[in-house]
Automatic annotation (TrEMBL), chain A:
GO biological process: transmembrane transport
Membership in a protein family: Belongs to the binding-protein-dependent transport system permease family.
Name this polypeptide is given: ABC transporter permease
UniProt entry tagged with the keyword Cell inner membrane: yes
Topology in membrane: Multi-pass membrane protein
Organism in which the protein naturally occurs: Phyllobacterium sophorae
InterPro entries per the UniProt record, alphabetical: MetI-like, MetI-like_sf
Chain ranges passing through the membrane: 64-90, 97-122, 142-162, 183-204, 239-261
A GO-annotated cellular component: plasma membrane
SUPFAM superfamilies, per database record: MetI-like (SSF161098)
From TrEMBL, chain B:
Keyword set includes Transmembrane: yes
Keywords: Cell membrane, Membrane, Transmembrane, Transmembrane helix, Transport
GO annotations of cellular component type: plasma membrane
Species annotation: Phyllobacterium sophorae
Protein's name in the database: ABC transporter permease
Amino acid sequence: MPSSRPGPVLLIAATAVALFLLMPLIAVVPVSFTPARFLSMPSGTLSLRHYQALIDNPAWGQSILLSLRIGILSSAIATALATMFGLGIWMFQPRFAAVLIGFVLLPLVVPPVVSAMTLYFLMTTLSAFNNWIGYDTWLGVALAHAVMITPFAVVLILVALYQVDRRIDLAARGLGANLATRAFRIIIPNIKFGIATAALLSFVLSWEEIGVTLFITSVNAITLPRLMWMGLRDNIDPAIAAISVLLIVITAVILGFRIFIERRGASEPQ
Amino acid sequence: MTGKSATSRKMLLLAPLLLFLGLAYVVPFLGVVRWSFTLPEPGVGQYRALLTDPLVQSVFARTLRICLVVTAATLVMAYAIAYVWVRGSSVQRMLAEFCILVPFWISVLTRAFGWLAMLSNRGLINTWLQSAGIISEPLALARNELGVIIGMTHFLIPFAVFPIASAMRSIDERVLLAARGMGASRIRIFWTVFVPLTYGGLIGAALIVFVFALGFFVTPAILGGGRSVMVAELVYLRIFQSPDWGLGAAISVVLVLFIGVLLALMRRFIKPAHLVG
């Protein structure tokens, strides 16, 4: 298809866009090595003091552990609920499937600030009844994150389900398999990559969630993004640059590796 | 299998999520709606304030203006890189995918900070331009509307790429071959055949970007530096700085209504699967 290969104009435009997309991620690197206490480009001397600060200040380690805990719990809740829901939609094809799906996608479409306000209401209400789950508690944050990330998990699992051949399920049914057997032995094994992707994306979304977290935490449940936010508002702390560089490098390595494997796998069989 | 037990099994699978979201999302939202009518005093006073308060009006106008500029910029940039991602050579596709997915998976906070590192007075661009002697005073690139627009466009490009690329992938190659066989030039094929075939994806992308941009909070708060407040940040300020929960709640309700109407009008262009590539 030589007629549709990108021409020089498009290639230049796309290169400019690619640079635009990567530049801010690259600009963080020199800032993280500045010897100054404020956001600046290092001139001459480089320093690791901001990386040292990540280790010396226990707040960073604590917030990372808290974010991991919240991410794992909320991702587990979201993935479990979304898998059950997806199976229900796929196996029973209820009459109002589109309405039901639209309903569970609400937290995705509603502006994040409205969701934040809504969950703020929920948390302050819950706090009136108990000390464990509510405003500024880690279980409260995990619950709120689960609400926000479930729609993404639902979308990914439905996409995986729509690629399953219905005839294998029909065959299982014809051979007398009951609901649980069909779900656990036939359908779930066929969408296990979809479920794994949903769990991973849910975790990442919770790990980096800030909009809702800002509304429902104050001093106790300080997640990593919450801590970064506090360092970003007034005097910008270059330790943010150091932690950003770590996050960017981890993401870039994992994704680069995955893209490389996929592309190689895709081009080999031909 | 009797009809009744089938229904109960169906509910066993569907009910948990519906109940969860009903109790943890819909009911609390109704609470927010109630706030908008009861705080600080019962009545529609907050909605009247929305219509008359010049500060609120200017924030709404700025939000709309920024959203339109950001949507246009995002679509153009997303289109260019989506084209290379879908139709480039295998190396070009790999590079494009990397450039689209890495920012997509990195948090909004890190990306906003990256733009501060680029644009602020002691940031990359100003340091370079000053040391090259092109400017003597740093340019005001961040802590204003320009910074907000740049940061939001950067955040939203991947969300626009997915529906556009999906539309590009579903184009029938033979249509392009036919146009070529009839003697159309490359440029003509692109503008009169290829682009019109992707209108569906473009409209879907525009909708997603616009809706997301309307509720944007983190990027404007960091890159706007409190000087170009958008609607979402106004809600935050009304709750946490000048406690006026009623107005914050009323703005939330208006935002939901606005987006509800917008989505209802554009229903047929929305495909949820496009959101996550």
